[in-house]
């Protein structure tokens, strides 16, 4: 291993636990990327998820020849302050599990756990699309739909660890056709996640056309002039505009950052500002809408930075038992 003054040099390790993939990154002392890997998520397998993360951490250490002195993990949910167990995770096999304690035991070192959208927001506020902004709202539009809030460089987790849970509010100003809305895994219907996530766009297109296509395929069809695909994307813009107008009306952030697979749809950055302005409670609106600078890896970078003192205020630390 690399050594400094006779001891193995340290790296910061970040893990982003997603619905379809788990990404790991190793950052050097100055934040430079030393190694990064992605592996499939063992969906539905809690023990397999713990083993996969442990193997990924070991692989990062082997690749860099350095010790992961700190490990931060972003999860699609939160650790409940009331029970110490995972709640609100769209990777439902995590729900009700002491994930932070089990992972600390598996890795034999302390870990810090934070909501994955908060990790995205931390990363983008530090040196990405929200750099220099006081209040950053970062939304993940991917397998699910979540968001993180950073104020003056610190993630806002909230008293109940649900700060930024934008995707599980109802779609604002719904039309008759949108009521009561699709069923959501959380047990309610009509959540924003059921309208503006990647699978939700695919389901909306299927309901309208009978065609089973991914959101990416729908975007490609729209680009080629397909009217039905364009109508699906128009509905997405309208619904995102309403959802983000609700954020602006309450939080009025300095910038809105988009991450996740749908954030790669270039037209969103010109179509969304007027769609948001239509529903915002203001005579004018100049809130910038920006793509995450660090793309799909922004969340994993934010996880690696959870051990900075300012992030420690929000993140939950667990020591191996």
From TrEMBL:
UniProt-listed PROSITE patterns: ROK
SUPFAM superfamilies, per database record: Actin-like ATPase domain (SSF53067)
GO MF annotation, one: hexokinase activity
InterPro entries: ATPase_NBD, ROK, ROK_cs
Source domain of life: Bacteria
Record-linked PANTHER family: D-ALLOSE KINASE-RELATED, ROK (REPRESSOR, ORF, KINASE) FAMILY
Protein's name in the database: ROK family protein
Protein's organism: Roseomonas genomospecies 6
Species lineage: Bacteria, Pseudomonadati, Pseudomonadota, Alphaproteobacteria, Acetobacterales
């Amino acid at each position: 291993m690399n050594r400094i003054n006779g001891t193995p040099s340290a790296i910061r390790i970040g893990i982003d636990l997603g619905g379809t993939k788990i990404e790991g990154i190793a950052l050097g002392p100055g934040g430079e990327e030393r190694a990064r890997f992605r592996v499939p998520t063992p969906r539905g397998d809690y023990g397999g998820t713990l083993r996969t993360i442990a193997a990924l951490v070991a692989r990062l250490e082997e690749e860099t020849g350095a010790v992961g002195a700190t490990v931060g993990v972003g999860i699609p949910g939160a650790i409940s302050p009331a029970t110490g167990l995972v709640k609100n995770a769209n990777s439902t096999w995590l729900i009700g599990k002491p994930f932070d304690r089990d992972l600390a035991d598996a890795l034999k070192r302390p870990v810090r756990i934070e909501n994955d959208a908060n990790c995205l927001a931390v990363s983008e506020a530090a040196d990405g699309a929200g750099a220099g902004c006081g209040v950053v709202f970062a939304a993940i539009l991917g397998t699910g739909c979540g968001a993180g809030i950073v104020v003056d460089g610190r993630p806002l987790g909230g008293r109940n660890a649900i700060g930024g849970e934008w995707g599980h509010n109802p779609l604002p100003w719904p039309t008759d056709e949108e009521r009561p809305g699709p069923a959501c895994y959380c047990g309610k219907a009509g959540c924003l996640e059921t309208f503006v996530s990647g699978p939700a766009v695919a389901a909306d297109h299927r309901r309208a056309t009978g065609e089973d296509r991914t959101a990416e395929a729908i975007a490609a069809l729209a680009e080629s002039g397909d009217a039905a695909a364009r109508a699906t994307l128009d509905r997405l813009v309208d619904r995102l505009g309403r959802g983000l107008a609700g954020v602006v009306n309450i939080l009025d952030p300095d910038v809105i950052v988009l991450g996740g697979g749908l954030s790669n749809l270039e037209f969103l950055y010109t179509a969304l500002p007027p769609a948001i302005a239509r529903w915002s409670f203001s005579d004018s609106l100049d809130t910038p809408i920006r793509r995450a600078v660090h793309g799909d890896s922004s969340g994993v970078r934010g996880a690696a930075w959870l051990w900075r003192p300012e992030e420690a205020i929000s993140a939950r630390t667990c020591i191996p038992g």
